[in-house]
Amino acid sequence: MNFIQTSGPNRIETVTVHPIAASKTGINNHKALAYCVDEKDLPFALFSASRAAAMSPNRDFDILICSLEPLKIPSALTDLGIKNQVLDLRKTLEQEKLSLGWLPVEAYLRLCLPDHLSTKYQRLVYLDTDTDPANADLSQLFDINLGPFVLGAVLDKTQWLSLEKPVLDFEERGIDCTKYFNSGVLLIDTKKWISQNVLQHLIDEKNRNPDYLFHDQSLLNLTFLGKIAELSPVWNWQWPNSFRRITRQVDPAILHYTGIIKPWHAAEKPSWYPQTIIEEFRGFVQRHNLNGQFQKPETGWVRYPLKTRIEYEVDQLIAGPRIRRLLARYPDPYKAIL
């Protein structure tokens, strides 16, 4: 993991799982890496979880696939210590009449994790299913000091090129706050979450402002109002598709495939994802006989026309200095801005 702006080879490669990758799952760990999924998104959560297991061979955290109903996990992946954690909360979540849009109700399950897992886990790292923790031992992420804060998170990519850019969720409500974080990677102190009754504050905020724009992310931001430990963007790198060249240079710890187009859409829609990562996803779902398989077209993965590719390269050059200035705010990726 480089975390610096130096050239280097593409960091995506097949990772061999260390034989002791699951050796600590029987120990009473006080940390857990958690995903919240339905059956449709299970293959992608398992891909992410398997990468985390491979990169953390001596890990001191559990890996949980949290769901509202039981999900089947292939034995090759349970052997890595990846397990299904069922939380019987569907009726509870549906009764809250949450804003869903294109999302399943499971998207809000992350908000319930601390209350239901705090008796066992002191720290949680939540990851979206479209993340790829393929470049760092996540044990080090769990140990980042959060200071007085409940939550550690990375600023949303909408603010990366302009830290003072107004955020619609705040601007529309006349809220004087500009720090807006992405909810795809969350580091949570469960004891503080419980003691500060965060879940009830989230519910109260939902009842006050039912028309929030970005679902759980809006709800979290409107509740915390910038009072978070600000993590380095390398822990939630939201531009692997838009800024492929810069992504290679930064070499982030966790890639987050934000936006509508994911690597598993490469057979249907143009993207900037490198062929290596597309093939990684394709090979994974086929090896484990999971739903979500996609076949490579005879003509190859769908790509943009030449004119668009040239414009894309120009954008890389223009944005580069501004992104370097952003990263300079975080000289040590293992220290949050408090």
UniProtKB/TrEMBL annotation:
Top-level division of the source organism's lineage: Bacteria
UniProt KW Glycosyltransferase keyword: yes
Recorded GO MF terms: glycosyltransferase activity; metal ion binding
A Pfam family the protein falls into: Glyco_transf_8
Alphabetized UniProt keyword annotations: Glycosyltransferase, Metal-binding, Transferase
Protein name: Glycosyl transferase family 8
The organism of origin for this protein: Shimia abyssi
